[in-house]
Amino acid sequence: MISRVVTHLQALQPMPEALAESTSDLDRVDALYRTHADFVHDIVLRLGGPDLDADDLTQEVFLVALRKLGRLPPETDLRAWLYGVATRAVWAARRKARWRRRLGRAIPPLESHWLETELDTGLAELNRRDARTTLYRLIETMSEKKRAAFLLFEIEGLSGEEIASLVRAPLKTVWTRLYHARREFLKALELERKREP
Amino acid sequence: MRPLRDEARDELERQASDLLTEASDRPVWTPKDKGAVWRGIVARAGERERALGPRLGWPLSLALAGSFALLAFALVHTRARPRSQAAAGAQTTATVPQVESESSWSDIDLGAVGTLRVARKTVYRLPAAPARDYRIVLEEGTLCAEITHRDAVTQGPLLIQTPQFQVVVIGTSFCVDVHGGISRVSVTQGRVQVQAPTGTAFVNVGETMGSDDPRLRPARPVTPPAKLLANSSPVRPSMPQPAQPAAAQAALPPSSLAEQNALYSQGTLARDRHDGPGALAAWSSFLHQFPQGVLAPEAAAGVLGELVEEGRDREALTAADDFLVRFPANGRAAEVAFIRGNLLREKLGRTADALVAYQQALGLATRPRLKDDALFAVGACQRMLGQTAAARETFKRYQAQFPNGVHSGELSRWLSETR
């Protein structure tokens, strides 16, 4: 509930005067965007899963950058900093998604109503969608840190060192999180398979 | 858990590997998508700047931040300091020190009795020990309560005593506010009885009653039956009156942000407990009492969500209409317009009206995903209405704007098949 109010309030916060007056900060963020947009988009796509809008979250991340970039120390690792902003945006969006999911349950998405019954949706794409949906459902209850390590390693294909650098944790910690995440994932998959007829 | 046999473990790991491989495929993010997202960033940055100019922005922002602070600390412990002054009229609580809450909001667990939420600077006293009539004295400030249903015979009612009246509770959710010599009670669930020296009345869910309410004034001489028959009004004198109209609310002294937050958070607490009717009652009460409140759009959206959830489609449609009239510039207006379209199309079968609603959503939407859905819905409605040429144009526009959109695959096939 509080997160919703925070979002509500953040949406009303004015732009800092310095940013509103000049385009220099926008130019800096533009440069940041050119360099890191793909990376941020990948992160929010992977961590957010199929229920969240990766484009929208990418916008959120760079809007935060627009507000805060001028205040960052010069030695800041921008990639790691953007990763932190992106993960927080995803966590916030996942919390907000509860409200939307409730509406979504009541009124199923349009695509499932009209087109899939009338037009031949590609089987391969359907399989991919199913796999994504299943995967994110299985790891829904995993802690955010383990979930991030798991998705970045198994799905995004980052190395342990890269993940450690992004999450600013020792490499051993990353391996530990990954080990436990895999166990939880296999356990969840096993339960799911047992429930299937 | 019993360890799996090796073959079973191998099979499970193979399935896991297949699932991960299948899920690893990602939608292509083209340079065009990337450009659209950047334009969205620039547009949203500009919208924020325009939404609140520097003159009004900071004071309002500070006011809102204050409101948030009240919420953020709502669940923090209370440090209460004793005060020597005794509350007038206290009976069973005479030996208990009076306290004045210092933190923004404090939650007090009353065990089997229920829970209290007390606003900052509220002066109140709790009973020393559970008594048959559990009496809380509220001298000044605001408290909200969720009271577990009480057995009227064995447990007796819970009483909230203010300088002006006494609220008699069997089991319900409500807030009591004492401010400026006037006491008010707002009921979000169930109903309570208000007993004042001048009269007694019931307050039902969604209603507010002040100690200056005409219902608590001494009854006028009973109207002779003949006159009652001649009177065409269907309201009998003994029946509770409907909730106060907005004009009467506006005449009341302005309520604090704290009271608004308490009432709003009652709704969210109820929703989080999957108590839809409770959430609906709390947010409806909020909108009734604070139609221009800081969280009014949130409460209105909450009402809409609950009505949809409960399948009350026509009421949901009315709530969506109301939201769009009252908060046309709110960030959720586009989403509400889209939901309105879904209700019209799917639940009420009014495709032509749904088309207008989706067009409105499309006009209001700033977020790419919602634009994507709204544009698609416009085309689909046109198609359902037999406007094939218009539908084709809309779908082509969709393909141009969202080449990797959620519905682009289906549309390509449909367009090629109907060429």
Provide tags for this entry:
heterodimer, A: 197 residues, mainly alpha, Rna Polymerase Sigma Factor, Chain: A, Arc Repressor Mutant, subunit A, 11 helices, disordered N terminus, B: 419 residues, alpha+beta, Jelly Rolls, 13-stranded mixed beta sheet, 47% helix, 17% strand
Structure description:
Chain A is 78% helix and 0% strand. Chain A has two domains: 1-107, RNA polymerase sigma factor, region 2, helix turn helix motif (Rna Polymerase Sigma Factor, Chain: A); 139-197, Arc Repressor Mutant, subunit A, CATH 1.10.10.10. Chain A has 197 residues and is mainly α. Chain A is globular and about 60 Å long. Chain B is of the alpha+beta class. Chain B has a domain at 74-214: Jelly Rolls (Sandwich), CATH 2.60.120. Chain B contains 14 helices and 13 strands. Chain B has helices at residues 6-24, 31-51, 54-72, 225-230, 246-251, 257-272, 276-289, 296-309, 313-326, 333-347, 351-364, 368-384, 388-401, 408-417; strands at residues 80-83, 98-101, 105-109, 114-119, 123-125, 134-147, 158-161, 166-169, 173-179, 182-189, 192-196, 199-203, 208-210. In chain B, strands 1, 2, 3, 4, 5, 6, 7, 8, 9, 10, 11, 12 and 13 form a 13-stranded mixed β-sheet that branches. In chain B, strand 3 (105-109) and strand 4 (114-119) form a beta hairpin. In chain B, helix 8 (296-309) packs antiparallel against helix 9, helix 9 packs antiparallel against helix 10 (333-347) and helix 11 runs antiparallel to helix 12 (368-384). Classes of the chains: A mainly alpha (197), B alpha+beta (419).
